C-alpha cells in the first residue's frame, strides 16, 4: 500500500519512471484478468491498455488512491463487460488455445475447452466471481469490495458456480 501511495504521488508529480514502474507492477495481473474475459489475446491486450489509459486520465481527479488495485479491476471489469456484450456469441478458437501451450497434449486441450465452455454457461455474476477468486486469486473480502456486494453473497456465488460447473462437466 505504501509503495502504491508513493508511486501515485510520483505519477501526479510527472515522474515518467513512476508510470513505467506502475505499469510493470500491475500490467500482468490486469492482462491475466482481461484474458479470462476475452477469447482473443490481442483483444485482451487492447482492453488492458485501455484500463491503464483510463486510470491515468483520472489520476489527477481522484482524491485518495488507497484501493488502487480495486480501482484497476473495476475499470477492467467494466471494459470487459462492455466488450463481452458486443462479442458474447464468439467462441474460443483452437488457434488461441494452442498459443497457451496445450496444443500438443490433446487431453489437456480437451479439458481446457470443456472448462471454458462450462464457464461460458455461467451467468455474468457467477462468472465474474469465479474469475476473480480462482484466476485472479483475490480474497473473498476483496471481491465483495470490488463488486460492491456482501461477503456472504460472494461465498454463495462461489458455491453456486462450483455446483453448476460440476454439473456442466459431468453432463459432458
Features:
172 residues, mainly alpha, Rna Polymerase Sigma Factor, Chain: A, 77% helix
How far apart the termini lie comes to 44 Å
CATH class of the domain at 1-90, please? Mainly Alpha
Biggest sheet features: none
Structural class: mainly alpha
At the fold tier of CATH, the topology name of the domain at 1-90 is: Rna Polymerase Sigma Factor, Chain: A
Our count of helices gives: 9
Helix content: over 70%
Q: What percent of residues are in strands?
A: under 5%
Global shape: globular
Number of E-state strands: 0
CATH architecture of the domain at 1-90: Orthogonal Bundle
Unreliable residue runs? 89-104
Mean pLDDT: 80
- CATH superfamily placement of the domain at 1-90: RNA polymerase sigma factor, region 2, helix turn helix motif
What string, H for helix and E for strand, traces the elements in order? HHHHHHHHH
Rg, nearest Å: 18 Å
Write a structural description.
Helix content is 77%, strand content 0%. Helix 2 (16-37) crosses helix 3 (41-57). It is built from nine helices and no strands. The protein has 172 residues and is mostly helical. It has a domain at 1-90: RNA polymerase sigma factor, region 2, helix turn helix motif (Rna Polymerase Sigma Factor, Chain: A). It is globular and about 55 Å long.
Amino acid at each position: 500500500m505504501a509503495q502504491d501511495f508513493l508511486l501515485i504521488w510520483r505519477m501526479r508529480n510527472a515522474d515518467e519512471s513512476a508510470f513505467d514502474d506502475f505499469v510493470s507492477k500491475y500490467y500482468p495481473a490486469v492482462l491475466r484478468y482481461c484474458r479470462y474475459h476475452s477469447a482473443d489475446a490481442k483483444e485482451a491486450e487492447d482492453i488492458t491498455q485501455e484500463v491503464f489509459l483510463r486510470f491515468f486520465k483520472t489520476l489527477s481527479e481522484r482524491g485518495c488512491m488507497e484501493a488502487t488495485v480495486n480501482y484497476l479491476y473495476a475499470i477492467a471489469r467494466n471494459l470487459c463487460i462492455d466488450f463481452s456484450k458486443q462479442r458474447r456469441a464468439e467462441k474460443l478458437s483452437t488457434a488461441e488455445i494452442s498459443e497457451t501451450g496445450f496444443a500438443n497434449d490433446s487431453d489437456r486441450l480437451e479439458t481446457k475447452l470443456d472448462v471454458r465452455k462450462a464457464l461460458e454457461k455461467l451467468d455474468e455474476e457467477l462468472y465474474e466471481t469465479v474469475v476473480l477468486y480462482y484466476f485472479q486469486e483475490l480474497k473473498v473480502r476483496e471481491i465483495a469490495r470490488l463488486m460492491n456486494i456482501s461477503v456472504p453473497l460472494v461465498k454463495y456465488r462461489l458455491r453456486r458456480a462450483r455446483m453448476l460447473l460440476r454439473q456442466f462437466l459431468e453432463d459432458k
